[in-house]
Amino acid sequence: MSLNVCIFGVSGYTGSKLLYYLNKHKKITVVGVFGSSKIGESLSEIHPNIENLPKLKISDYYDFDFSKVDLIFSCLPAGLFQSKIIENLDPNIPIIDLSGDFRLENKRTYEKFYEMSHKNFHLRDKFVYGLTEINRDLIKKSKFISNPGCYPTSILIPLIPLLKYNIVNAGHVIIDSKSGMSGAGKKSVEDNLKLQLNNNFYSYSVTSHKHFPEIDQEIKKVNKKISFTFVPNILPIFCGLQSNIYINQKDLKLKEIKEVIDSYYDGEFFIKTKNEKPVQLSEVQGTNNVFINIFEDYEKKSFLIISSIDNLIKGAAGQAIQNMNLMFGFKENESLV
User: Using CB atoms within 10 A of its CB, is residue 217 exposed (0-12), middle (13-18) or buried (19+)?
Assistant: First the structure.
């Protein structure tokens, strides 16, 4: 079995990573790439560092024949796909959306945090939240996937097993996350972010980040008693993301945390727990891995979970490839190794 796929938003950072992995996938042919500002430019012009690209040019999707397309990926900024494109597509073609357009289950929450109206929220129930290692069975049965955000991926993967098995069962969790600048998107980096981050570092959107309701939604599905503080920070590096999760709960033991996470992810190809020193971001950059470190503080009063990923790969394009592989019965790590 081989698939014909199309990509909306192929010129951005996430689109570039997705194209790279699709292009080396043995059972995938990229047949269409769509955009607006770069219409007429060839893939090899836009992505000269990716070898053996198909001889395609960016086109307007209105002019494209989708009759032989098996899967559509959207790497567009939030809001564009839901408001201007999805209603014009054949509703039978499977979709993996890498934006936040179909992650949230509450329309008002989406419109509050994304600061825009949602014009096709009636389609939301078609989409499965694509946190691969958590929702694998649902993903296999679905034709429509909403890929998780990068911060939520790094946070939910270590937390959900602890919530499911009632190891962490109440109280307040503090989450301090730091990401490379690529998470802000190509336009932001090229316009001003790269200059702002020269020899600099700062927190941002500390009370209104788009990923807060996504994290909250998925945590509340497992345990409604947990509250949390989420602080995103931006680093003066291109890619890589680390979430430090602080848990202060009486009668909790380090051994319990380790055993539950190790057991839950036993046999998982991309999730690796580490018992030694914290992982450096350079160890996870360029991979689809999640590295999890677990520590007890010096006074043995709280616990620290460090979760590290590449925000563009496991936090975006790599996880989308995993989900595609599951949907169509391919080997889950195909093209990601």
Answer: middle
* The one catalytic residue among 6, 75, 150, 239: 150
pLDDT in tens, 239-276: 999 999 999 988 888 999 999 999 999 999 999 998 78
- The DSSP call for residue 170 is S
CA distance to 12, 16, 183, per residue, from 187 (Å): 8, 14, 11
20-52: pLDDT as tens digits: 999 999 999 999 999 877 888 999 999 999 999
77: its two tokens: 């900024």
pTM of the model: 0.95
Catalytic (active site) residue 150: yes
What letter would DSSP give residue 296? E
CA distance 20 to 160: 30
- Tell whether the torsion through CA atoms of 25, 31, 34 and 38 is positive or negative: positive
217-221, Cβ contacts within 8 angstroms, sequence gap of 24 or more: 217/103, 217/104, 217/105, 217/106, 217/109, 218/129, 218/131, 218/152, 218/156, 218/160, 219/156, 219/159, 219/160, 219/163
Q: Give Cβ neighbours of residue 171 (< 8 Å, ≥ 6 apart).
A: 225, 226, 227, 247, 248, 249
